[in-house]
Design a protein that fits this description.
There is one protein chain. This protein is mainly alpha-helical. It has one domain (75-278). The chain is built from eleven helices and two strands, in the order H-H-H-E-H-H-H-H-H-E-H-H-H. The two termini are 17 Å apart. The relative contact order is 0.16.
């Protein structure tokens, strides 16, 4: 093992340790404060706190850097990349949901058990935003970028995508196809970092997709949110609709993820310079 690889594993191990300790500390604290049925809130904010603290401490300890150095700098280019990500994520979700409605494979209908309310929409939007930022900092942040600098882009993207898929395996309604699609999303989000050099493009893709699915009444990775009072009633089988897991567990998502690779390849992304990939460690 080369000295560079040993150094990378040391820093990654530190990051993982801090993330685990912080996650369980915040989860225990929030479980004490909040009711048990607030498990989504507890998971999202524990994950966000763990990702932010692990990234900040690793950057400060090993790089003398700031949180912005993992690709969170706020520039004209990063704002452009965020917009491209949001457009891709929202557009992809609308295609896989409204396409079947137009083709009469599904109906978008009011759910009498749910009622639309602006505070509820705002609340769930914030939860999804923190969730997307937290997951991107955790899976495409410091440890991922250090690993990429040591072993190369796709040698880093593929195993982290496997881990990304595995972390969703405990979600309700999870299937083999849902796991494959989540893995493909992990590769896509890793590739989006490679294309942009910042976290804003993957954050935009991640949040845009996650926000639009429950907005149009389908489960998000097995979770029902009821953001708008609408629900999707499918006329096609679970192989396409994803069943209880939601559209992410169906073949429509498999197809749209592939299409998003071409979208990222052609989109006018403004590349940033990833600090951790170009830092001189000699």
């Amino acid at each position: 093992m080369t000295p560079q690889l040993k150094s990378a594993f040391l820093r990654i191990g530190f990051f993982v340790f801090i993330a685990f300790v912080t996650y369980f500390f915040f989860a225990a604290a929030l479980l004490w404060i909040l009711p048990e049925n607030a498990i989504v809130i507890i998971a999202v904010f524990s994950n966000f706190a763990a990702a932010a603290i692990a990234n900040a401490l690793a950057l400060r300890t090993f790089e003398r850097g700031r949180l912005a150095d993992i690709g969170l700098g706020w520039t004209a280019g990063s704002r452009r990349n965020l917009s491209i990500g949001l457009l891709g994520g929202i557009g992809a979700a609308m295609v896989v949901l409204l396409g079947p409605v137009v083709l009469r494979g599904a109906d978008l209908a009011r759910d009498p058990s749910q009622h639309f309310a602006w505070p509820s929409l705002l609340f769930f939007s914030l939860i999804l935003l923190f969730g997307a930022i937290g997951e991107e900092m955790l899976f495409r942040g410091y440890a991922f970028q250090v690993f990429m600098a040591a072993v190369g882009p796709f040698a880093a993207i593929l195993p982290v995508a496997v881990l990304f898929g595995f972390m969703h395996a405990s979600n309700p309604g999870f299937t083999v196809l849902a796991g494959i699609n989540t893995f493909l999303w992990g590769v896509l989000l890793g590739y989006s970092f490679l294309r942009s050099g910042d976290l804003w493009l993957p954050i935009g893709l991640h949040f845009g997709w996650n926000w639009t699915l429950p907005l149009l009444g389908v489960n998000l990775s097995g979770l029902t949110m009821g953001m708008t009072g609408y629900t999707m009633r499918w006329r096609i089988g679970g192989l396409w609709s994803g069943g209880a897991y939601g559209i992410e567990g169906g073949l429509f998502t498999t197809a749209i993820v592939v299409a998003l690779y071409f979208y990222l390849d052609k989109a006018p992304i403004e590349p940033q310079q990833p600090y951790l990939l170009y830092k001189d460690r000699s």
